[in-house]
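User: Hey, my collaborator sent me this sequence without any context and asked if I could get a structure. I don't really work with proteins. Can you help?
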Amino acid sequence: MQEVRYEKPLACVQFETELEAFLEGESRPFVSAHARACEFCGSVLADLEQLCAAARALPLEEPSPAVWASLHARLEREGIQRERTTGWTWLRRLHVWPHPAPLGALASVVLVGVFILMASSTSRISPPRTEGRYGPPPTSVASLLGANQAADLTRAIQDLESAYQLNSKNLAPDVKASYDKGLDSLNESIRESLASLQQEPDNALAHEYLMDAYSRKAEVLSSALESGGR
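Assistant: No problem. I've predicted the 3D structure and written it out in structure-token form, which is a compact way to encode the shape of the chain:
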């Protein structure tokens, strides 16, 4: 039996081509005219306009800092957004504090440490232990990095966390709650990555997730410190 193919009218093709621009507010008279003449396209346009109206009626909510940090990290990882200058943006933002050099040095230690984490794909990892809000215990990555490097990394993160605790009182309660929630989520990601690497030390994806979680955590902490200093 011969297959019957439906050829879409050229007017409908043009309608689809211009539809997105029309919905974004551009003047496209053809879209309105064709929607009145074509029952199917008119129905599509009516449904889309109804959805747009409903979306505009929704309240706007600011995404948490963790969401922004995650998005930034993903864009950089996919090569969509990449800084050409030396260092990451969260390092450059530390200049707003009265003592930028110590905080910048701490952030640099974190940056170096997470890249060493990624590179050490054949090392063994100590089992993760129960911990509080502000991160894994110092021995969690000791066998992955080596005792000295692990101590430097965890001390740097802990110092950033201490600075956050001291300055978080300057944050609005809802903002602080948002940062705390983001840190809790990142610490959970760190725990899960460490657990995966405990089972599979050569798991490159788990190493990538661990590095990403540490760098995002530093991003969130530095963002919170900047917000608290304003």
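In plain terms: Confidence is low (pLDDT under 50) at residues 80-105, 115-134. You can pass these tokens on to your collaborator as they are.
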